[in-house]
Amino acid sequence: MPKIYLGPSTQEQNLYVTGGSEEYYMNLVADTLEPYLRASGIRFTRNRPEMIAGQAIRESNAGSYNLHLALHSNAAPVYETLRGVDVYHFPGSVNGIRAAEILADNFKVICPDPNLVDTRPTTSLGEVDRVRTPAVLVEIAYHDNVDDANWIINNIGLIARTLALSLTEYFDLPFVEPLQPFAAEVDTEAGGNLNLRDRPSTRSTALGSIPYGATVTVYGLLPEWAAVEYRGLGGSVRRNYLDLD
């Protein structure tokens, strides 16, 4: 399973013109994104509101991730003059550029004005140029513009879904709508173990095995596969070997 470092803004001092803060709303987006990640088989580590950017960068660099995704909202140098979504990437990162382009393309579908969505290279944002893994920082509209701030506030679910759709495209995974998590029992033929796989494919790496009769938590379902967690380890299993009734 691919694994990302998820970094919603910790900038509580950046206030929305409509009320609330950048930290509050970006963490709300991340909260809403998490079920999509579990359902689609993307593992994640998430920063914490009490952290500062440097701590998140160090934590990201200390782990092994396939992508660092930072979530922010923007402010204009001249108050209320700019709008739109800016996706930042490191100029020399092939995978970072690809991730940024996928995110921008998908945000153009939901942004009120798709012409105001762009990708931008940067060497001055720490969460892009100081992390070891490919990284993108999404400035999800301008919180000092009334229309943009209201667009974020009124579209938290749509924004989270668009982020998830972009990540599954980037990792070449099927997009799965999240379910209310529920428990299911492993019911294999002849009482054998069930392989927990890295991706929803019999050709993918087996992360381990789940014994007959064990209980897993189900987060998402495909026609032949289920995104599950067993003893803290997430992966995919063949859904016909789960008792889903």
Structure description:
InterPro entries: MurNAc-LAA_cat, SH3-like_bac-type. Pfam families: Amidase_3, SH3_3. With 245 residues, this protein is α/β, with parallel strands linked by helices. It is 31% helix and 29% strand. The chain is built from six helices and 13 strands. The strands form three sheets. It has a six-stranded mixed β-sheet. A five-stranded antiparallel β-sheet has the order 12-11-10-7-13. Strands 8-9 form a two-stranded antiparallel sheet. Helix 1 packs across helix 6 and helix 3 runs antiparallel to helix 6. The longest helix has 19 residues, at 22-40. The radius of gyration is 19 Å and the shape is elongated. The two termini are 27 Å apart. The model has no long low-confidence stretch (mean pLDDT 96).
Structural class: alpha/beta
Please state the CA-atom Rg, rounded to the nearest Å.
19 Å
The counted number of beta strands is 13
Strand content: 25-35%
Q: What is the terminal-to-terminal distance?
A: 27 Å
Tally of domains? 2
Shape: elongated
Mean pLDDT: 96
Q: Work out the helix count.
A: 6
CATH class of the largest domain: Alpha Beta
| Uncertain residue ranges | none
Protein name: N-acetylmuramoyl-L-alanine amidase
Keywords: Cell wall biogenesis/degradation, Hydrolase
Domain MurNAc-LAA: 57-168
Organism: Yanshouia hominis
